[in-house]
Amino acid sequence: MLILRPEQPTPLVSQIVEGLRGLIGSQKLKADSKLPSIRAFAAAHGVSVFTVVEAYDRLVAQGLLVSRANAGFFVKRRSDESAAGAASTPRPDPRFDARWYLQQIFENRNLPLKPGCGWLPHDWLFEDGMRRSLRHLASEGTDIGGYGLPFGHMALRMATAEALSEQQIVVDAAQVLLTQGSSQALDLVARRLLKPGDAVLVDDPGYPNLMFMLRFLGVEIIGVPRIPSGYDMPALEALLAQHRPKAFFTQPRLQSPTCSMASLPQLVQLLQLAQAHDFTLVENDIYAEMDASMRPSLASLGQLRRVVYVGSYSKTISPNIRVGYVVAQPELLDELAQLKMVSGLTSSDITERLAFGTVTDGRWRKHLKALRDRLAQAQGSVARRLDALGFELFHEAAAGMYLWARHPDIADSSELSRRAAVEGIMLGPGQLFLVNPHPTGWLRFNVAFSEDERLWRFLERSIEEQRRYD
Predict the structure, then answer these.
(1) Tens-place pLDDT, residues 378-398
(2) Fewest 10 Å CB contacts: which of 79, 132, 311, 413?
(3) What is the pTM of this model?
(4) DSSP conformation letters of 399-446
C-alpha cells in the first residue's frame, strides 16, 4: 500500500517514484503487473494528474515501467529476471531518486558548501573579463531585439575555430554550431544519430544528464567501464561485438566524475574500432581549457571522420551564460542546425557576443593559466586530505575539477549525502553517475569547493560514527 505524506518536504512526485520503486524492488509489484491508470491513481491518492504523469514518466525513463498503447502502464520485465540463478544487474536503490537529487543540486546551489557540484566558485571564474565584455556590449549599442543566427554569432564561431586549430583540430567557422551549452549540443547530436531501440555506449561512471536524455530517447544505454588509465578496452571490444552500437558518447580528457585520461594508444584504437564497427564517436571535451598539456583528442587524430566534437565556454567563463558548441562534418552540422531551429529557434546572440568579448579579452589566456595552476594546487591538497582520512582515490590527474574517491567505512554515499545536506553541504553521491544505479561508496569531489574545514569535520565525524555503529 502506497501512502503519500503531503506534509513532508519531499515532493509528491518523488514520494510516488520512491514508493513504487520500493514496491517493485520488493516484488510486491511483480513484472507485467498493471498499474492504476493516471486518473485512477490521482483520484485514489488525492493528487493532480500532472503529478502522476511526471512520476510515471520518471519510472519509464528509469526502466521500471513500460507504457503500452491503449493499455496503460505495466511493471517492466527485466532481462535479469528471465534466467534463474543468473548474475543480476544491480537494481536501482529505491531510497535514491537520481533525477530528483540532480534537480536539488541546482535548486539548492546556494548551500554554504558545494563539494559535490559541477561548476567553479565565482572567484575562480573570469568575472573581470565578463564585466568588461558586458560594458562593451552596453556602450556599443548592441541590438537586443530579434533573434540570433541559426548557427550562432559568426565572430565567436571564427574565434572557436581558431582556438581549435591550436589543438590540431583543423576546421573553419562553417563547421562550428553554437548551442545553449554543451547539454543542448549533446541532445542535438543524440536526436540526429539515434532512434528508439538503438544501442549507445556511454562512460560508466559518467554524465547523469546525458544518461537521462538518452533514456528519454528510448535507446539502450550500455556502460563502458572507466579505469584509472582511461577505458577498459577488452570490455569495450566485447560490448561492441555484442551490441553493435550506433554511437559512443565519451569524455576522453579529465572525465567526469573520475578525472581519468585516455591514452594516445587508446584514442587511436577507438578510432579504429569506430571504423571497423561502424559507429560514431561523440567527444565531449568541455574540460579541455583546464588541461595544461597539449594532448591529442579524438577530433584532432580523426579530423572529424567518425567524430563529433562538443565543447563549452560555460565551465571557465560562467555557467550562467550557457554557450557551448558542436563541431562536425558540414552535412551533419547542417542537420544539427535544423534540429536546433526546430527545438528552440536560435541561441542567444547576446550571450554569444558576451562570450566572444570575454575570450578575446587580452587577459583571457593569463586567466586560464592561473585557473589551471589553482586547480592543480587544489587537486594535490584535497587528495592529501582524502588520503589522510582513509579514502581510496580512483585516479590523481593533477588537473581538472574532480576527484573520485571512496572510503571503506562508507557503503552508501547517497545516505551520507542526505545527512550532509541537513548540515548545508552538497555532496556528489556516486550512484548519481552510474549507468545502472545502485548503492555505492564512491563520491565525486569538486576540488575547487573542497578545501573548507567544515567539510572535513563532517567527513571525519561521519566516518567515526559509522565505525562505532559497525
Answers:
(1) 999 999 999 999 999 998 888
(2) 79
(3) 0.76
(4) SSSEEEEE-TT-S-HHHHHHHHHHTTB---BGGGG-SS------EEEE
